[in-house]
Amino acid sequence: MNADLSALEARLASDRARVDAWLERLFNERLPAAPQLEAAMRHGVLGGGKRLRPILVYATGRALGASVEALDAPAAAVELIHAYSLVHDDLPAMDDDDLRRGQPTVHKAFGEATAILAGDALQTLAFEALTLVEHPRLGALIRTLAAASGRDGMAAGQALDLAAVGGHPDVELLAKMHRHKTGALIRAAVRLGALVAVAENDPRLSALDDYAAAIGLAFQIQDDILDVTGDPAKLGKASGADAARDKPTYPALLGLDGARAKARALLDEALASLAPLGEPAAPLADLARYMIERDH
């Protein structure tokens, strides 16, 4: 492992450990009213994962001068939203998955009804978490996370995804679906980190949004590629699921080489977008490369 990669891995591990500790505290500092629901929520959010979205919160905020302590609540909140979305996406009415991160999905472990309630509760806990640290731009943080989660964000993307099963969308429609389903929360993570540090009218927000839009789509393309080429042991779930469900993907539309070229072009866009931030944005550039070179 070269020195640059080793430093990146150490930074990723540190940020994962930090947000995991914060998430643990959200569960440990109270007695649960419904222990089975609490167990399902913990299963959905504390069972591992890349923690990419909170890592983006930390990396963006640090690049703009925010303290890591001020970034903890937004980092935890965006991971809770991500966890809720996975719990619901795995349900039989959606993607009907049995495994997530190498473990039974929440509905397999606790039943469908409890899984629905766990997803609901994780979503609302995200907004509760946002309020646990006082911040002058709390309203902007809440708006950012809500917009990314709802009818103009992930929920819209999932609706487009369900509608596309068995159909033949073109690349533009596929990009629209992924920019909502996956990209919206990645853009929110970057914006949350930025808003902790700077005002809403800071010109760097536009550059960061361009960066986030590019890496959000590149991340999904790499997911599509790994569904074809990935090792199920590393993925923590079966490969080939998209093809089995007749879901449109970038490899299906462009071929594997075309999908890889598209991801690389988006990486170039993301790196170019960071130019106005200068050297402090180097960790964000490292993250962009990591996102399309990962194997799980």
TrEMBL record:
Belongs to the FPP/GGPP synthase family. PANTHER family: FARNESYL DIPHOSPHATE SYNTHASE. It comes from the Bacteria. This is (2E,6E)-farnesyl diphosphate synthase. Its cofactor is Mg(2+). InterPro entries: Isoprenoid_synthase_dom_sf (IPR008949), Polyprenyl_synt (IPR000092), Polyprenyl_synt_CS (IPR033749), Prenyl_diphosphate_synthase (IPR053378). Pfam families: polyprenyl_synt. Keywords: Isoprene biosynthesis, Magnesium, Metal-binding, Transferase.
